[in-house]
Design goal:
The structure holds two protein chains of two kinds.
Chain A lengths: L25 E7 L2 H11 L7 E6 L8 H6 L4 E4 L3 H14 L4 E7 L1 H13 L8 E4 L5 E5 L5 E5 L1 E2 L1 E2 L6 E9 L4 E6 L12 E2 L3
Parallel strand pairs in A: 1-2, 1-4, 2-3, 4-5, 6-11
Antiparallel strand pairs in A: 6-7, 8-12, 9-10, 10-11
Chain B lengths: L5 E11 L4 E8 L12 E9 L2 E8 L10 E6 L7 H7 L6 E5 L2 E2 L9 E7 L4 H12 L4 E7 L8 H7 L4 E5 L8 H6 L5 E7 L1 H13 L7 E5 L9 E5 L4 E5 L5 H7 L18 E11 L7 H6 L2 E2 L5 E9 L2
Parallel strand pairs in B: 8-9, 8-11, 9-10, 11-12, 13-17
Antiparallel strand pairs in B: 1-2, 1-6, 2-5, 3-4, 3-6, 3-7, 13-14, 15-16, 15-17
Bound molecules: FE2/S2 (inorganic) cluster.
FE2/S2 (inorganic) cluster binds next to loops of chain B.
């Protein structure tokens, strides 16, 4: 699968690459949805590192599509998480036990990549040393700049904040610390004057 | 100009530490406070040796928060250009000297969860200041310090007494070597490694760490480069329209300065990139000694780092 090519944007907008195997003592791979494809591709390129790999995978809407293929790779450890929040403790535990020389690979949606990157950074992995590859939906994890509430998997712009109900416009302004894009009220000057919602990048 | 802010100091103490290393303490001439600095910083000491002016960088090893004094250690280099010999033989307590404001090209990354220091010989000095800095904030660190023989392990006793569980000494002559493989493989995630010492040691540790998958961002190093003596040569400074003669014991940068031409610098040790100078024309060969230019730049004949590199040949024209 060829990943979505994001158009050029402001500097704060994250850019993603293509995963490649780096030499290391251990390998931690965190993926959601179609991100599994990136990992499967990587494992096929280089079979030696897979037994030293710990895969944490959250299938989301892809359900069982990639699960068997991941199992067939015979990774050192494979954890299937029902959701990102449910997988956080597993991710933290993996990072806590990790030694220097760990390589981190993140693949999937921007929300997954951003949040997992955050966990890695707070464990002391420099963010520039973390490999990422965007796969699947272009939906975003949004923070309402007004009430600070987070809305996950936002695909329509503008959208309604699920916490405070404001109509929010999706900005490319991104916070690495919050792992979220910023949503700003679109009808503050003229309440009720909200343009029709369109799907992101459509 | 960058790097040229000066402080007038007086030599307040000189301590001979061993056969090779002597420690100098500076205080401000007017009795005022010195600027604080961060561990790993160096100062450039101006040495007026007769008619020759030499400017050599030395890491500051005293407590970064102690504004009353700076201390440096100078290792005697009998093969060098004479800067260290000047410090060892000519400088006396009470002498007035000029040093630069501290500049740090080897600072701690305070996001690190653990700081792992690898020192070789006189390369210990920046770590002495960094350890003092970290001790104030209860930082997590560990030092592996290798020297030729116990009598040269200048700071070992003091360090071992203060931090018996954090310091491991190694002596080459006793066939002790840092067990790099086990050291690197057991470090918790978020460890940063800092290496200071001879080139061979730096290359070895960097290579091993990289092979183990340590990210570049977590590998820090500083190599002490002093300009080497060499054959005298001539250079033309195009912009200033001057011809200068670089003496055997002089660096190109010093010769430029002696001619009254302002030239940028920060480290005077081939590491910072500040002194990079374009070559307009040349006929001869470059003796590149810096860590700044890429190999391609070095062979291109278009750039030179005048703080440490030299030239041999018929003609050299610089964009300065
Ligand atoms: S002054 Fe730093 S490289 Fe020359």
């Amino acid at each position: 699968m060829v990943g979505f090519k994001f158009p050029e944007s402001i500097k704060s907008r994250p850019v993603y690459g293509t995963l490649s195997v780096k030499s290391g003592v251990d390998h931690l791979m965190i993926a959601d949805g179609e991100g599994a494809e990136a990992i499967i591709r990587l494992a096929k390129l280089n079979k030696n590192f897979i037994e030293k790999s710990h895969i944490i995978y959250i299938p989301k809407h892809t359900k069982s599509i990639f699960v068997d293929q991941l199992k067939e790779l015979m990774p050192g450890q494979l954890y299937l998480g029902p959701s990102y929040p449910a997988s956080v403790s597993r991710i933290r535990q993996a990072l806590n036990n990790a030694k220097m020389g760990l390589q981190v690979y993140l693949a999937g949606t921007e929300g997954l990549i951003g949040q997992a990157q955050n966990e890695c950074m707070s464990s002391g992995v420099p963010h520039t040393a973390i490999q990422t590859e965007h796969c699947g939906s272009v939906a975003r994890r949004m923070q309402c700049v007004h009430c600070k509430g987070i809305t996950e998997d936002v695909i329509m712009d503008p959208f309604i904040c699920i916490h405070c109900g404001l109509n929010l416009f999706i900005r490319d302004h991104y916070s690495r610390r919050l792992a979220a894009f910023q949503g700003v009220c679109i009808d503050a000057e003229d309440p009720g004057n909200v343009p029709d919602a369109v799907e992101l990048y459509k | 100009m960058i790097g040229s802010t000066k402080i007038n100091v007086i030599v307040s103490q000189i301590k001979v530490l061993n056969d090779l290393v002597t420690c100098f303490e500076f205080k401000r001439t007017n009795g005022g406070l010195l600027p604080t600095f961060s561990g790993g910083a160096h100062t450039i000491v101006e040495m007026q040796d007769g008619s020759v002016l030499r400017l050599n960088p030395y890491s500051i090893m005293s407590d970064p928060f102690d504004q009353a004094r700076y201390t440096i250690s100078v290792r005697r280099d009998d093969q060098g250009r004479g800067g260290s010999l000047f410090m060892h033989t000519k400088v006396k307590v009470g002498d007035e000297m000029v040093i630069s404001y501290p500049v740090n090209l080897f600072s701690l990354d305070l996001r690190a969860r653990k700081h792992l220091f690898i020192a070789g010989g006189i390369g210990i000095t920046p770590f002495l200041a960094q350890i003092k800095q970290l001790e104030r904030s209860n930082g997590y660190w560990e030092l592996h310090y290798s020297t030729r023989r116990p009598s040269l392990g200048t700071f070992v006793d003091e360090l071992l007494k203060k931090y018996p569980h954090k310091v491991s000494p190694y002596y080459d002559e006793c066939d002790q070597r840092i067990e790099l493989t086990s050291l690197l493989s057991g470090q918790p995630l978020g460890t940063h490694i800092y290496i200071c010492g001879p080139k061979g040691m730096i290359d070895w540790v960097r290579q091993e760490a990289t092979d183990f998958g340590w990210p570049d961002e977590a590998i820090h190093f500083e190599e002490f480069l002093a300009p080497l003596p060499g054959k005298p040569f001539q250079a033309k400074l195009e912009i200033s329209d001057k011809v200068i003669n670089v003496g055997e014991l002089q660096s190109l940068l010093e010769a430029v300065e002696l001619a009254g031409v302002e030239a940028p610098y920060l480290c005077r040790g081939g590491a910072c990139g500040q002194c990079e100078t374009s070559v307009i024309e040349y006929d001869g060969k470059f003796i590149h000694r810096d860590h700044w230019l890429t190999d391609d730049e070095k062979t291109s004949g278009l750039k030179i780092m005048p703080c440490v590199s030299r030239f041999e040949g018929k003609k050299l024209v610089l964009d300065r």
